Amino acid sequence: MGYQERDYYRDDAPDDPLGLRAMSVTAKLIVLTVLVFLVDLFFGGPEHRITKALALWPEVWVKPWYFFQVLTYGFVHSSTNVQHILGNMIGLWVFGRLLEEKQGGAYLVRYYLASIMICGLAWAARHYFLLHEMGPLLGASGGVTAVIILFCLKNPRATMLDKVLIPVPAWILGALIVLADLFGVQMGPKEEGSRVAFDVHLTGAAFAVLVWALKINFGRGTFLDSPGRWLKNLRNRFKSRPALRVHSEPHEGDDDEDVLEREGDRILAKISQHGDASLTAKERRTLEQYSRLMRAKRK
User: Fold this and answer.
1) Per-residue pLDDT, 235
2) Residues in contact with 179: Cβ distance below 8 Å, sequence separation at least 6, in sequence order
C-alpha cells in the first residue's frame, strides 16, 4: 500500500454519518453490486429491464453506443438464482479484502474494473465472431476470478480455508479453481441449460497471470507503462535476484520489491511522525533503495 493511502497522510475527514469513508474498497464494490441487484429486483419489472439494459450483449461490437455494457455487466446478476450474486460476493469479500490489504484500495478497484472489462471484451468477441451466439453476459465472476488468482500468485504460500475446510496453500486453491473452469469449459456444452461462463473465468485467470508476470502496477496510476518496461519485468520475474536486506519481515509469497515498498512506507510514516532525524543508518540506506525503486517504476 502506498503512503498516500495510509491514515497519517489523510486530511481530517468531514462528517460521514453513513460511514462510507471508513468502508474498504471491497465493501463498497459489494454494496454497489447488491444495490443494483435490489433496484432491479424491486423496480425492474417482471422483465428485469435494468439487468437487461446493463448486461453485456455480443452485438456491442456493431453497436458501439452500448459499449458501457463492457463494464456494467459486472454489477448485475441473475434475479432467479440468488447463488449467482451470493457466490461472487463471498469470493470478492474474502479475496478482495486480502488483496486490498496488501496492494491498497486504489490498486484493487482499478484492477477489478479492468478485469471485468477485459473479460467482457473477450467474451463478446468470442460469442459474436466465432460462436455467433447472441445471449447476454452478466455477473462479476470474471473479475472475482481475476482477484482470486492474482492473490494466489502474489501469495502462493498463504494458508487458505483454514477456518472452514482443510487448510491449503493459496497456489493449490488457485490451481484447483483453474482446473475446475477448464473442466467446465469441456463439459459445459454437454450440459443442456448450463449458463455458467467458464470461459469468462479462464479469461480472468489469464489476465491475473499477465498482470503478475509483467508486474503491472495498478496502485499508482502508472499501470500503462511502456511495453519495454513490461518485457523487462517479465524477464526479471523469472530471473534469480539477491534478497534485499530490509527491516520488516516479508509476508508470505511477497517478492523483494513488495518487501522494499512496505518498508519504505513504514519509514515514510516514521518521518511524518518523528522527523528524519529519528532514522537509523540502516533505515536511511533502505530509504535510498526505495527511492531508486520508485524512480525506476516511473521511467
Assistant:
1) 62
2) none
Cell numbers at residue 87, please?
457466490
Continuous segment of H or E residues that includes residue 159: strand 159-160
The angle formed by the CA atoms of residues 94, 95 and 99, to the nearest 5 degrees, is 130
Q: 62-71, 147-156, 230-239: lowest mean pLDDT where?
A: 230-239
Among 34-43, 100-109, 200-209, 221-230, the least confident range: 221-230
Which CATH number applies to 3-225: 1.10.238.10, 3.30.590.20, 1.20.1540.10, 3.40.50.300?
A: 1.20.1540.10
In 3D, which of 140, 139, 84, 85 has the Cα closest to residue 109?
Answer: 140
- 159 forms beta bridges with 169
| Angle (CA) 288 292 295, round 5° | 135
Rounded to 5 degrees, what are φ and ψ at 78? Answer: -60, 130
Cα dihedral: 122, 124, 128, 131 (round 10): 60
* CATH 1.20.1540.10 location in the chain: 3-225
Cα distance between residue 126 and residue 252, in whole Å: 37
Residues 6 or more apart in contact with residue 42 via CB below 8 angstroms? none
C-alpha cell read off for 76: 448485475
- Give buried/exposed letters for 149-162 (b at 16+ CB in 10 A, else e): bbbbbbbbebebee
